[in-house]
Amino acid sequence: MRLSKLVLAVLPLMFMSGLARADVKFAYVGEISGSIAVSGGNFRDGVILAVEELNAKGGILKQKIELTLYDTQTNPGVARAQMQKAIDGDPYVILGPIFSGNVKVTMQMLQQAEIPHIIGGEAAELTSLGDAYLFRTSFGQQIGMPKIANFIRDELKAKTVALIWVNNDFGKGGRDRLIKELGARDIKLAADVSSESGQVDFAADVVKLKAANADVVFVYSNEEECARIMREARKQGLKGPFVGDTTLLSQKTIELGGDAANGAMGHVGLTADAPLKQVEEFKARFQKRFNYVPDHNGLKGYTGVYAVKYVTEKIGKFERKALASTMHGLTITPEDEPGILIETSWDNNGEIDRISFLAEVVDGKQKITKILPKIRK
Amino acid sequence: MTRRRTVAVGIALGVSSSFLLVAPFLFKPYGIFILSTWAVMTVAAIGLNLTLGYAGQVSLAQAAFVGIGAYITAFLTTNGWSFWPICALAGVACFVIGWGLGYPALRLQHHYLAFVTLAFNTLVYLVFRNEEWLTGGIYGISNVPRPSLAGWSMNGAHAFYYFCLAVLALVASAIWWLIRSPWGRAFVALRENPIRAQSLGVDTRRYTLMAFALGAGLGGIAGALYAPLVQFIDPTPFALGLSLNLLLMVVVGGSGYFFGPFLGAIIAVLLPEWLRFAQGYYLMGYAVLVILLMVFCPTGLLGLADRLLTSTAKAAPVAAPEVS
Amino acid sequence: MLTDILQLFVAGLATGGIYALAAIGFTLLWQTSQTINFAQGEFVMLPAFFVLIGMGFFGLPFWAAALIGVAVSIVTLGLMFKKLMVDPMLNHGVLPLVIATIGLAILMKEAVREFYGADAWPFPPLVAATNVTVFGAALAVQSLAVLGISVAAVTILQLFLNKTRTGRCMQATAQNPTVARLLGVPVERMILYTFLINAALVALASLLITPIYLAKFTNGELLGLYAFIAAIIGGFNQVRGAIVGGLVLGVIDNFTAVYISTQYRLVIPLLFLIVVILFRPQGLLGRVEERTV
Fold first, then answer.
1. Chain B residues lying within 8 Å of C89, measured CB to CB
2. What are the start-end ranges of the E strands in chain B?
3. What DSSP string describes B5-37?
4. CB of A105 less than 8 A from some CB of B
5. Chain B interface, best mutation among C30, C80, C87, C106, by max B CB count within 10 A
6. ipTM exceeding 0.85?
7. In chain C, which residues have their Cβ closer than 8 Å to the Cβ of B60?
8. In this complex, do B288 and C292 lie within 8 Å of one another by their Cβ atoms?
9. Sign of the dihedral defined by the CA atoms of residues C183, C187, C189, C191, in that order
């Protein structure tokens, strides 16, 4: 190439680079592999969808979002290393982790670095450890469990509950909370059966549940295991009614459990099957982009990104401390920001307040039977 | 050792030591954290190398000992105890437990011992997970503090890294001395031909037990370092996966070679990190590399280096006794 | 109470049949080539995904996909596994191959997760998903099928090993390869056959098990361990032992879960294994192995 042509070619580039927008960095640090790869993968894809939609419209405050993904492998040692790596890249916010153990191991570093983290973890204690930069994307278990306990006491009028739960921090946390709430309502625990994550054979567990002869059977596990438990229960003639929280009633459980899933009831904090227009449209967009139906973790990732977008535009600049303090006590409605999908509020601990649903599985579909209001209006 | 070999080892040692000392100034906090992890894992791998490489016993319980060391340290330091006595306590406790486990278990043949140690590892993991009153159960122990030396806190990434490096150097020197001593020679005799060793008056039982218990003690010390490194201890890291990973480190590095664990830990800790650019494929890439390594140098990296360096024919590689 | 015990026993046998299928090939590989295959669980997990890809991607009907899946498994998990991984490492002792198969397990798991997905998928059953009631205990027809086919497979294998010429050559290879070679047995070919048989068995196991387990990349994790244990309990040097080991393991697992503790369920089979190792190291059905000095 002749020198003059080269100079002519390069000049506009130099000009443009002067005008080039700096990207704003988002980091997703979550469970892409390991035991909760499904949840982490859903959350990540929700984040990706939101980032792509925002970038197509020009980004946030005219800056495009540069998203980097980090895999914690559902292992706290790895999570800590990956979070350190993410922090080294100087991100505006961190999205994730979803595994509560990984949230705990990285909280301290993020507080010190003063980086807001929008987490997917649901363990009750996470919002009571004084982290001013932590924000949830779904209820902590301390909010969901009283709601379902009320349902068991008031609508099902049950006096005894047989509980089966998965022995990881999600299942144990839920079980501990539920036992507390049931105890406060004078409902006795007739059986307390723990199962392993990834367990396949539930014959022994169902025998134990049957022997308890309780009014209600509470199933608190991951989607596949819920499906297997329901199948085994149907096979052995365990009568029910079966009650659960979110996972028992999800689309995946219904698909895997088939007929055995019908009749399950429970509380659903966040669901892609909510009878709300914005949620239905989100579900369609997600399915089109990724070729599978999202679970509640997809919603969590998606709404998390849009929450950051709304607050950032509200304060008018990319400032982490301002982001965190503005989010405390904030309410975002779908009118303010369609990407939030459902009206969401955060308190000063980063805990979330939203409407939730009571649902039942009828004819292979999740049917919402009641909408439960927010705790604070 | 041939002259070529001594020179090669000397150069390698010189280069790597200088690198390790200078590393914190070359890397961001993330890189330093990974190097600290490498140092901690190497201590555990040195322990396993003692048991497996030198005494020829297949142990799948090393993760349990790392876990026991980590939990002891986490529990006591979060309750205000100083780190230094705890570290020693962790090592001694694991030595004793190792002795206790080894006493009946070492009567068994190779693959049977592997199963007993596998069972022990699973049992210890389940105790960690189920006994919430003791270990915090699935919720773990948070906010494990980092040690301080005479008022100088090692909270920072650099300081803690040098601390890990110092412990590694100490442990390595101690084991080097052990291998060179008559004890070490007895271990090697044990590995090559236990029956002949016995006929020469070596108390095989005692020495094997000693190697096993020492390996366990080193695992405990590694655990005592792991707790302040990650600052959060839950049961997940101490399941069977870590035992298999440590086994991988020893074999890939070169079982029975002094520097084997160092190299093996580089492969197991650093390689997945280098491969992370491959996004979702990094674990697959890692697995393929491990398989290729085993196919092309079954005696490990140092076994390969050995073959390349020695001019005379190599003796039979260290392995389970062959059926004749 | 009695129906409970019967229910547990029967369910234990059904699950035990699953462990046995996975353990049979495992034992065979150990016998003939001293191969400990740490990826055996993943070997059972994978063929189901071949079938799902056949049906989903290529649009084949289930039967065609299943046959092709089995064929692909025999080639990859049998022939390629032996040629590419086992052969180069055969003379270097047990450990390098153990490490390589650990790597292989990771590779297979992550490949399925990355290329197919992390979810669980339903899988079409070979027999109808209905139940029968036996003396008040409910039993899935699928479970009975698994049990029946496991027993049939072992019987056929035993007949093959004892009554046919090739079978006896394989046994000779297992007992003493050097002498077998001297006697004119094509040792390499015999070893290859065992790998092919193992691949066929795990593919069959996959087709039987996956409708119950659902197709998921983590399926192999616990199954591999239990197959190991079943093989040892039954007797590592006897194929018949795998069936007994599997059934015993399944039943013990179920009873301890109900009557002792579900939280410590994982360790009970291991403790049982230790008891067997300490008091009857050759396994329940095994022959005592002599050691050469």
1. 294-295, 298
2. 148-149, 152-153
3. HHHHHHHHHHHHHHHHHHGGGTS-HHHHHHHHH
4. yes
5. C106
6. no
7. none
8. no
9. positive
User: Could you tell me what percentage of chain A is helix, strand and coil, using 3-state DSSP and rounding each to the nearest 5?
Assistant: 50, 20, 30
Cα C125 to Cα C128: distance, rounded to the nearest angstrom:
6
- Residues C113-157: tens digit of each pLDDT: 888 888 888 888 877 777 787 777 777 777 788 788 878 887 888
The residue type found at B250 is: V
Contact A211 C117 (CB under 8 A): no
Listed in order, the ranges of chain A carrying CATH 3.40.50.2300 are: 24-139+275-346, 142-268+357-372
Determine, for residues B319 and C93 on separate chains, whether the beta-carbon distance falls below 8 Å. Answer: yes
Please list the pLDDT of chain B residue by residue as tens digits (324 residues).
567 778 888 888 889 888 888 888 888 889 899 999 999 999 999 999 999 888 888 899 999 999 999 999 999 999 888 888 999 999 999 999 999 988 887 777 666 788 889 889 999 999 999 898 888 888 889 888 888 877 778 888 888 999 999 999 999 999 999 988 888 888 777 777 777 777 877 777 788 888 999 999 999 999 999 999 999 999 988 988 899 899 999 999 988 888 999 999 999 998 888 888 777 788 888 889 888 888 888 888 888 888 887 754 444 455 555 454
The Cβ of residue B194 has, within 10 Å, a number of other Cβ atoms equal to: 17
A352 at interface of B, judged by CB pairs closer than 8 A: no
Indicate yes or no: CB of C120 within 8 angstroms of CB of A256.
yes
Touching check for B280 and chain C: CB below 8 Å?
yes
Cβ within 8 Å, pair C106-B287: yes
A172 touches C: beta carbon within 8 Å: no
Interchain CB contact of B3 with A (< 8 Å): no
CATH 1.10.1740.10 fits A142-268+357-372, yes or no: no
- Cα dihedral sign, A291-A294-A299-A300: negative
Chain A (171-200) residues lying within 8 Å, Cβ to Cβ, of chain B? 172-173
∠ CA A114-A115-A119, rounded to 5°: 130
Nearest CA in chain B to A101: B139
Q: Could you give the CA distance from residue C133 to residue C140 in angstroms, rounded to a whole number?
A: 9
Which pTM was predicted?
Answer: 0.86
Q: Options 3.40.50.1370, 2.60.120.400, 3.40.50.20, 3.40.50.2300; which CATH number does A24-139+275-346 get?
A: 3.40.50.2300
